[in-house]
Amino acid sequence: MFNLNNLTFLTRDSLYQLTVGKFGLRNNDLTFIDAGFGNAPGNLRPANMSFTTPQLHFRNIDLEELMKKKLKAPAITIYQPNIRLYTMEKKTADSTGTERFSLKSFYKVMHGLDELINVDSFHIVEGNMQLRSSKKNFNSDLYSINGVVLVNQLLKSDSLVDIKRALPDMNIRMATLSTPGFNLALDKFHFDGTSRHSSVGGFTLLLPTGTNIAAKRLTWDVLDWDIFQRSDILQIQKLTIGELKTNLEPASSSVKKKGNLPKLRIDVLEIGNLGFNMKNKNSTVSLNADKIHLGDVNTETAHLTWKKLNASVNGFQYTKPGVEASFTSMALSNAGINRIAEVKYHTRDEKKELRFEAPEVKLRMVFESTDLSKFLPGSIISDTSTLRLVSLTSKKANQTLINPVAVKTTAHPQQSSVERLSLNRVDLYNNAVIYRNQADSVNATGIVNITGNNITFNNDGDLPLSFEGLDLAFRNIQFDQKNITVSGPLVKASLVDGQLRTSGPKSYQINTGIDIGWERFDFAMNLDDSTAFAVKNISGTFKEPAYEFKNTGEFAWVPLLKKATLKTGNANFENPEIRAGAEDLYWNGLTSSFTTGNFSVKPKTNSASAQVKNRWQRDEVSVSGEKFEVNGISYDPASSDPTLAIRNIVIDKLDLHASRDKRIPFKHGIEKLMPTRLISNLRFPIQVDSLMVTRGNITIRETSAKTNKTGIIPLHDVEASVTNISNRAGMNKVLGLSASAMLLDNRIDYMRYDELYDDSLSPFMLKFYASPMKLTNFTQASRPLANVGVQRGLSDTLYASWIGNKYAAVGRMNFHYRGLKIALLDKDNPEKKQFKFRVINFLANTFIRNANSKEAIVYYARDPEKFVFNYWVKTTFSGLMTSVGVKRNRKYLRQYEKAREKFFLTELPSGTSNGAGTSPTSSY
Q: pTM to 2 decimals?
């Protein structure tokens, strides 16, 4: 045993020294007690590394080299060393100083130590290491270091690659690293320089913002130090993390961020379990993920990127004031379909509340970066989701639904927004939509299917939305708003080449090709407690290859009707006075035509109940028919002439019933206008070229005040045409009526009525002629109304013509008949043959003409309180009275001459014929 104390070994340049408190040699094994290595006294270029150890053991020391002050041995063991690295402060003329840690200086120290120690392997037992900066802004401590160092290789190192190769095996129980930017703690670090496999039992990273990242069971394979030395890029073949927990607290706007992420290249990154939480002043995000696998991970740009991604995400939650989002699980992959389970989204502000829930959403996407602007979802598929939208009632000024928080943020280099989002395909099936508006009591529900392709959302610019195709299907639709309800089983809409463009903060425009079809819809509207309108079972289509909608200005709905069709619907209207209905509604926008099947307009009271209800006489009219057709409709309220123009109206099998009870008092003082004046007083501008009635029936029912009986006057097989119905008619425009019918089974072959517009007198011309008639047919009307019967008589000629205005009419009639015999009847018992009536009837038949072939004068001064139909009947009756001899022509002529100037009448027309006449003019 050989012992020496207080020895010093110097390098050849005397810059570094190895000091030994006690020297011992036994069996060629050398032991240094209390040894230390560092700068030699007088070193003007001090190095930044030193170490001390209580015991340094050389096995099988080379004594010959030892005598040359060279420590050479095959192996060395250092016990509990304390290694210290520190930064130096560099003084300059124009600065107070900077700190530096020089690798060049570190390698120089290694070479100096190599001059003193020459061993193959270096065993460290329970060593410690400290790294300090002179300004204390960088501190690191390594505890319980155990491992093997290939000293000769290490001391000759000129690079990190050389150092890595000199460390075949290294274990560190715990390490800490502290900087102003972060604090890092590691435990159970293992480094294998031979197999290039390393591991960390766990680490914790703390940032000044409060961010906390903790991981367990880290391993990595093949950390390429060669690339790191050349390009400062850490390239790892495989990195595995058993468990990773992150609690992120983003920096405030006052914290300045510099630089990008550390440069990493990882071929394979696997994370067994990830717990993620992020909080800022206004929101929180949390999720858990398992079995995370990423391939080709790279951080050489400002964002984390990867090529392959597979993970199982669960328990996602996002909250901020007024917004909540969550899902329970997600099978995440950027190479297949991502299944997201139990998706929920809820947002609420002062104006609206929205809830979205979906049991599953399938998402096919390209997700290869934390840069959301590169997020490329390829397709979205959803089934049986629910969307609830509630428009909230406005609150008072001192009430808010959400406390507003003003947050000012500054963009972070690693933060980005989605500027463009493209979807190759969207498939959303059986999605329930629920909408409620508390302000106007709107409730709407339905099931929606949405499929689309090549849909693009742009966050910036004037084209926020575009798509190549979009198909919508709405099922089980229900809409309610106070007194309005709409329901239907199905609406389908196909949109192609669509664009949504903006031209201001509140201005937008939609352009798309559109094809919509709906089936069996019901619509109901209650205008008040007793007035309602309803349409049932209405189907239709709307097609427009170049549809354009602008939210500014008036909505042009009329042009859309030209592209639409309606069919198979039934309509009903009801108010306190009438009930109206129509079946088989049909609208053809291409031809601008509207038709119905069976239709009716009926009063709610019949003639019996009207007698009790009505205070004054009135006509109870009911109308029905088998077909109502309107063709050639033209209407444009946006133009300079907003007239509703109609080419023709056709009413087939019209069945009109009019009844009046003359036992009820007649209300005087109300003038009944002539037809042209009635039409001209319509407030809505209208022009109908023609109105036709085919195969019609008109039944007039009147209860006589004299006989207390009801007479019926039937008109069958009515064929009628009304032309030029207009309240915008110009000079010399004429309202015309042509008709033929069966009156009491006698044919009226032709009736023509023409009335002049644009003249306050309403001048007109009327003519008619009839086929030979059985006069006895008139008994069914004359008996209950006048207690008069026609017992026999035949007419072979009846034609008449007169002119007039709103005051009176004058003309001529040819009523040729033979064998006329009448009978006055007892009003109480018409069938009873009393002697007095025999006498009266004898005198009456003596007084009237039994036959007639002479022309008669027609004259009648109109009762302005009666309708024009009464005017026609009374004027015709005046001619009949003259023909049968009850009245005389000269009496009517005297009345005419007396009233001619008063009533602005023209000269009496010349002899009549059954031919066509001229239209009236204002000159007559």
A: 0.69
